[in-house]
Specification:
Length: about 300
């Protein structure tokens, strides 16, 4: 059977690239030294795109692919895809939801623990030999605290269940009230005022860009900690750095950043921030399941079968 030409827009793991190469002719746009020349040579042949959740497929690129039929995203987030444009041009889009929900929720829960109990600082304290000179300073318990979750989708709900197990109460903010037992806040500012931990679990994109800004951080206040496992764009990073430096908030636990993999030096110098390199779905089990969905969505489309996880 003839292999379908696809364009690869991001560095992808071998366990995904191997089945892709077995079924498709893969053109590596990400590593191409002359991207324009590559598009000139093969753009008219490309029928599919494979990209990562953090990568971008701009309209200008898509317009050079006249036979493009599908974009398969290796990730749950697809804010780098111009979905409205794709819908208008009959291009299908898929992502890899559900399979990473539990790992991302685990990471959010871990960040809550690491920031509240200052576990990273305690680890450094011990490695530095400081324990022999006295005990590590007291931290804060989770029981009795309130988590305010921004975006109560699959991941937000999984986070809520984990934090309830730690003795925390849960509130949420989103576009609409849901049929759940947790308290709903129509106002993000009011929820931030009521929360000890403000947890971003909403989609990225223009609609949520800098949703958590200086005003929200001020409402969270000196008792509060920001956790972000959503998208870096959801938080005004400059405002967050200022809040951490000036003590407007107690701390932050971040797995995502505005300009990944570049992280501001000023943020890395904040001792009251726990920073992770966007690893929330980074387990062997989850990434292999994500890869399977990418491959199977492409196979379904090109064989005329229903998509497994369609976005549009």
């Amino acid at each position: 059977m003839e292999k379908t030409p696809v364009l690869v827009l991001a560095p992808l793991p071998d366990f995904l690239m191997e089945p892709l190469r077995a079924a498709h002719v893969c053109h590596d746009y990400f590593r191409a030294e002359d991207k324009n020349a590559l598009l000139t040579d093969v753009g008219v042949e490309i029928r599919g795109i494979v990209m990562a959740g953090g990568s971008v497929s701009p309209v200008g690129l898509l317009e050079r692919l006249p036979r493009l039929e599908i974009i398969s995203v290796f990730g749950v987030g697809y804010d780098g895809v111009p979905v409205d444009w794709c819908q208008g041009h009959g291009i299908r889009v898929t992502n890899t939801p559900d399979v990473l929900t539990e790992d991302v929720a685990d990471t959010a829960s871990a960040l809550v623990l690491m920031t509240s109990r200052r576990l990273i600082a305690a680890n450094r304290f011990l490695h530095a030999g400081a324990w022999t000179r006295g005990p590590f300073p007291l931290a804060h318990a989770l029981r009795g605290k309130r988590a305010g979750i921004v975006g109560l989708g699959r991941i937000g709900k999984a986070i809520a269940h984990r934090l309830e197990a730690h003795g925390m109460s849960v509130a949420y903010h989103g576009r609409a009230r849901q049929e759940v037992a947790w308290e709903y806040f129509e106002s993000l500012i009011e929820m931030a005022e009521a929360a000890d931990f403000l947890i971003a679990a909403c989609p990225g994109g223009a609609a949520t860009k800098h949703l958590i800004n200086a005003a929200v951080l001020a409402a969270l206040g000196t008792k509060g900690t920001l956790i972000n496992i959503a998208r870096g764009s959801v938080v005004d990073e400059a405002a967050l750095i200022a809040a951490l430096q000036s003590g407007v908030i107690r701390g932050a636990g971040l797995d995502v950043f505005e300009n990944e993999p570049q992280v501001p030096e000023a943020l890395m110098r904040c001792e009251n921030a726990v920073l992770l390199p966007h690893l929330s779905s980074g387990t062997h089990e989850t990434r292999h399941e994500m890869a399977r969905l990418v491959v199977e969505n492409l196979a379904a489309h090109f064989s005329g079968e229903p998509l497994l996880t369609p976005v549009c």
